[in-house]
Specification:
Radius of gyration: 21 Å
Order of helices and strands: HHEHEEHHEHHHEHEHEHEHEHEHHEEEE
Strand content: 15-25%
Number of helices: 15
Number of strands: 14
Helix content: 25-40%
Low-confidence stretches: 1-47
Largest sheet: 10 strands, mixed
């Protein structure tokens, strides 16, 4: 058994799953009829293969890869009421509760970091370790960090605003600015990893983590970097921000049953549950990874981005902008829609987004590949979502398992899509696309190929 295959078999033993459910048999049909010819496509501009060599993830469902994957495959929401939200319009979130974040970060500088920065640093360290890389020995000038953040240290800002109102300007911390700015996470991760290449912080709302991965790929293909640590992080579970999302009608109001509130693609969905977390990938050129004896965990075969140019918060109803991003990713990977065997959906559980995305999947993917949506379990982690879902997509390719959508018995009758429900589906998957959409009309699609 090869090392790569052995690693895959070991990882597939992490979570128990049901036998393969019927679904639409896409993989079986393609394998028998076409001999899995798509596997030979190293995709992506036909020149440079980009490998995923490391994963890091910190979520409410688990603060490392194994716990996160087990939580996803169990298909149980982790939404809970929060004491600090008592009396607010929505009093529940998906929070990271079983990890001492400060202790995990360690060091004397932890006090100067906002929570989203700490989550990013934990996930980045995990990913670099998983990739078998050592920041003490690599050429830091060839290492980049691209870390999407949507909001930044809003909790620090709100706290200092209250202090100033109560006690005057002398009460404002001199660390307020460096702690609240969204690029603080990219900067601190670069410092910790001694990465002196580009350090970037794309902000495309809830697509930020996926945008970061797409930008990282460009840095590698353009040979500006040899290694890029890319992903997203967010932590804004404050009364102010949660109430703001509630006031705009984005959140589920199932205060009587928080665990059942996030239900992507369900007929009775009424909004998302806000969460926190971080996801990180280490990306390298495939040839470089193999030259140092590292087997890729997956290949990032293509990426596509677009903008709706439609509305500040609502998606374009027919999903034409989102479709453009998906089709660009497929062209970039040199795939046809028939090649795609799995979709990791953005799946926010909001009426408008899920309707748009279901129509998109129906139009673009004629074979109706099986669909999952992690936000049913971990909630909507905003800027971190695209990166966390990229991690989930890579794990699906490795394990041959598609996690179920939490709280979903069947998709709304108007949706003709193959949602994985109730239990994880055991199914070999060679190709997968992960969708990410954000306020402002930002759309990103990432195409991953099993290594």
């Amino acid at each position: 058994m090869t090392r790569a295959r052995g690693e895959r078999e070991e990882r597939r033993g992490v979570a128990g799953v049901s036998d393969e459910q019927g679904g639409r048999g896409v993989v079986g049909e393609r394998g028998e009829r076409e001999g899995r010819g798509v596997v030979e496509r190293r995709g992506g501009r036909g020149v440079v293969g980009v490998a995923v060599t490391g994963l890091g993830v910190v979520t409410p469902a688990g603060s490392d890869e194994r716990a996160f994957w087990e939580g996803l495959c169990a298909g149980r929401s982790v939404a809970r009421r929060r004491p600090e939200l008592a009396g607010m319009p929505v009093d529940f979130t998906c929070a990271i509760e079983e990890l001492d974040v400060d202790a995990e970060v360690g060091g004397r500088s932890v006090w100067r970091m906002a929570r989203f920065v700490k989550l990013a640093l934990i996930a980045a360290r995990q990913a670099v370790t998983d990739a078998g890389l050592d920041p003490l020995t690599w050429d830091g000038g060839r290492v980049g960090v691209v870390l999407g953040v949507g909001v930044g240290g809003v909790a620090v800002l709100a706290d200092n605003a209250l202090k100033m109102h109560a006690d005057g300007p002398d009460a404002v911390s001199p660390l307020l600015v460096p702690m609240m700015i969204p690029n603080a996470a990219a900067g601190e991760v670069a410092i910790a990893l001694k990465a002196r290449g580009p350090s970037l912080a794309p902000a495309t709302a809830c697509a930020s983590g996926a945008t970061a991965i797409a930008v990282a790929r460009d840095l590698l293909v353009g040979e500006q970097c040899d290694v890029v640590v890319a992903g997203g992080a967010e932590s804004v579970l404050t009364p102010l921000v949660v109430t703001a999302f509630a006031r705009m009608g984005a959140l589920s109001t199932r205060t009587g049953h928080p665990g059942g509130a996030s239900r992507p693609f369900a007929a009775d969905r009424d909004g998302f549950v806000i969460g926190e977390g971080a996801g990180m990938l280490v990306l390298e050129r495939e040839a470089d990874a193999r030259a140092r004896g590292r087997s890729p965990r997956a290949l990032l075969a293509g990426a596509g981005s677009s903008t709706d140019a439609h509305h500040p918060t609502a998606p374009e109803p027919q999903g034409r902008g989102a479709q453009a991003a998906v089709e660009t990713a497929l062209r970039d990977a040199d795939w046809s829609p028939y090649d795609v065997e799995h979709v990791n959906a953005h799946g926010t559980s909001t009426p408008l987004n899920d309707s748009m995305e279901a129509k998109l999947i129906e139009r673009v993917f004629p074979r109706r590949p099986p669909v999952t949506a992690p936000k049913g379990v971990v909630g909507h982690t905003l800027a971190a979502a695209g990166a966390i879902e990229a991690v989930a997509t890579v794990l699906t390719l490795e394990h041959g398992v598609i996690p179920p959508i939490a709280n979903l018995d069947a998709p709304a009758v108007e949706f003709d899509i193959d949602c994985v429900t109730k239990t994880a589906r055991k199914q070999e998957v060679e190709t997968a696309v992960s969708h990410s959409f954000g306020f402002g009309g930002h759309n990103v699609a990432l195409a991953f190929l099993r290594a």
